Prior knowledge:
Blueprint: H1 2-19, H2 23-26, E1 32-36, E2 39-43, E3 58-60, E4 68-79, H3 91-94, E5 114-128, E6 132-146, E7 151-154, E8 159-162, E9 172-187, E10 199-214
Antiparallel strand pairs: 1-2, 2-3, 4-5, 5-6, 6-9, 7-8, 9-10
Amino acid sequence: MSKMYLLLAGLCLGLTGMAQTDSSASQEKKPDTIHIGNLIIVKKSDGHYENKDGSVSVSRINHSHRNVSTNWLILDLGFANYNDKTNYTSAVTAGVVAPGLNKEKFNLRNGKSIDVNIWLFMQRLNVISHVVNLKYGLGIELNNYRYESPVYYDKKNNIFIEDVVRHYKKDKLAADYLTVPLMLNFNFTPNNFYNKSFGFSAGVSAGYLYSSRQK
Length: 215
């Protein structure tokens, strides 16, 4: 009889042991997700930022298909020049250009005439499948024309003359515009994973001359 009691007691202990659950499984931490810019980094429950193969678990949010994208404060640097088609023998030209001045006298110094554009913003609007876009913005254009000869604009008499009395080290005409460009943009890589586009833009711009001066 005592052996039967011992057998029943052993079975009860065995069932009790089988009924216990592992509480550590319920306390297992869920993976954390960290956003850094356009990147998503997944932290595993063991505290590592790695997959089983040892690589970092990284995903990318693709923003290339936004219908409207905006860039702020863009800086352009370039060279300023012009194509002089003035007829210096005409009567109209004679009224604003002194005798002796010609096309050669208005030549610019090579590499010294610069153009600085500061765009406050530039937007691109999707038109056709993110391949054809409308691009527009607002900015200021600062044009600096540096002459080789001592050309001087006499505001009092409204005429250009060659100043042979004073000796100029530098002679510059500055013209500043408030500009609104309107262009068609063609993006040949709209589905690029790294949001690096390849294409070109062409269009027109309207400018308002808010300042002009000669130094």
